[in-house]
Design brief:
about 150 residues, alpha/beta, 2,3-Dihydroxybiphenyl 1,2-Dioxygenase, domain 1, four-stranded mixed sheet, 3 helices
């Protein structure tokens, strides 16, 4: 099997607000926009990122799955989480947790999207000495944690 591409799809009953949230927070651009499906793209050098938004009540979504998100965190690794945090504050996006350094080598902030989905935005940082030592014991270099 050859995989051509993969991307997360967010189910939403607030398509315009969800589209605008990811455009404002992370700089996605709208590639396709309809009343039931939105495709977002972000080109960054040689990297291409995609995110889709599907109307939660659309006939293509099986009825048992037409609910608010639960048990999912959508993660985006960026170069500068503090810059994204500043943009989130300017855009009045509710911040669950402001940027903070975590033991495993990430500087992380948490926000929620208009659907209540938890969104992690993080940047690589220096892991704690104890975690770096554990990585080395397992044969991994600390800089591979990002």
């Amino acid at each position: 099997m050859a995989m051509r591409r993969s991307f997360p799809t967010v189910l939403s009953d607030r398509l315009p607000e969800t589209r605008d949230f990811y455009v404002a927070l992370l700089g996605f651009e709208v590639a396709f926009d309809s009343d039931w499906y939105v495709a977002l793209t972000l080109l960054d050098g040689d990297e291409a990122h995609e995110l889709a938004i599907w109307a939660v009540g659309h006939e293509l979504v099986p009825p048992p799955y037409r609910a608010d998100p639960a048990g999912v965190i959508l993660t985006f690794l960026v170069d500068d989480v503090d810059a994204v945090h500043a943009e989130a504050r300017r855009a009045r996006i509710p911040v669950v947790a402001p940027p903070r350094d975590l033991f495993h080598g990430r500087r992380q902030m948490l926000v929620t999207d208009p659907n209540g989905m938890l969104v992690e935005v993080s940047s690589p940082s220096t892991p704690s000495p104890a975690f770096a030592a554990e990585l080395l014991r397992r044969g991994r270099a600390p800089e591979t944690t990002g």
